[in-house]
Design brief:
This protein is an alpha/beta fold. It is built from nine helices and six strands; from the N terminus they run H-H-H-E-H-E-H-E-H-E-H-H-E-E-H.
Length: 302
């Protein structure tokens, strides 16, 4: 569903841009037409810049070192590119280009879980490499898009159970953003689930909520607000030792999950990535290297 929605949005914006350019050209004002096309094509970069401005203002007393101006600019420029790749191309048009890789007995698999307003297309570079290496993997597309987080729990169960059945081994679970909370909800709701995963790697997951979620109104965004009732209830259901099964990557330049400490868990292996924005963190070399190490050398992104 999300891929169709995003394709529709992209095609509508392309039509609006073409119409604007044609009207400007016909009226003898081609410059206005070109400026309109540029606004439609690159207006999202202004939104990203506003998010970076907010993370600077909200940092407060967070113990994570503040990002320097140059680091924020570098993170913003990188995010402009990665966001275009993900939301304009991979998710709308390439979500199913790389199917799941079937399991093989004795070869550990990976479950990929995306975040908010994303689908399995986010993981395209990872899935391409897993295909080339014959690495068993399942990448979910969480639907419905704007539901409560607990609704996605059966999809995680299905993905984990499939790789367990096909490989005979508990899979490694790799999550971006909201996906990490969905996996925690599955772990809390499923007896013995902690023994059915090898490890959980979360990337920019709002484990403690995020300040930015106060600007949203969908059910899953409400769950991701700082100190939300849903997060408190989840924490109360979790075993005290659960965090030891997690490696959490976070950044002082994350334009979605901030303050930075919000993406960490007490007792987890929390790893800071400098000058890396929210979407770009999913492809950071340190994340790739950690996944490759845990899986036994595979699943690295070229």
């Amino acid at each position: 569903m999300l891929a169709r929605l995003q394709r529709g949005v992209m095609l509508m914006l392309a039509l609006v841009a073409a119409t604007w350019l044609l009207i400007g050209w016909s009226a003898g004002h081609p410059v206005i037409g070109v400026l309109g096309v540029m606004l439609i094509s690159f207006g999202y970069t202004v939104v990203l810049a506003a998010e970076f401005a907010m993370l600077v203002c909200v940092h407060g007393g967070d113990p994570t070192p503040r990002a320097r101006c140059g680091e924020l600019v570098r993170a913003w420029l990188s995010e402009c590119v990665v966001a275009w790749q993900v939301f304009v191309w991979r998710q709308p048009f390439r979500a199913d280009r790389w199917p799941d890789v079937p399991g093989r007995s004795g070869v550990r698999g990976i479950v990929f879980v995306h975040g908010y307003v994303c689908n399995r297309g986010l993981w395209s570079p990872w899935l391409e490499r897993c295909t080339a290496e014959h690495r068993p993997c399942v990448a979910v597309s969480l639907e419905p898009v704007f539901s409560e987080l607990d609704v996605y729990v059966p999809q995680i169960e299905q993905a984990v159970a499939r790789l367990e059945r096909e490989t005979g081994l508990p899979p490694l679970v790799v999550c971006h953003s909201m996906g990490g909370l969905v996996v925690r909800a599955w772990l809390a709701a499923t007896p013995g689930a902690d023994k059915r995963v090898d490890h959980v790697v979360t990337i920019a997951t709002p484990h403690r909520g995020t300040w930015l979620a106060r600007l949203g109104r969908t059910a899953n965004v409400l769950h991701m607000r700082s100190s939300s009732d849903w997060l408190a209830a989840l924490k109360a259901r979790e075993a005290a030792t659960l965090a030891a099964r997690f490696t959490c990557f976070y950044s002082h330049a994350d334009n979605i999950v901030f303050p930075p400490r919000a993406a960490t868990m007490a007792g987890a292996d929390n790893r800071h990535l400098r000058a890396t924005a929210h979407m770009a963190m999913a492809f950071h070399p340190q994340v790739v290297a950690e996944v490759a190490r845990r899986i036994g050398g595979g699943a690295a992104v070229a």
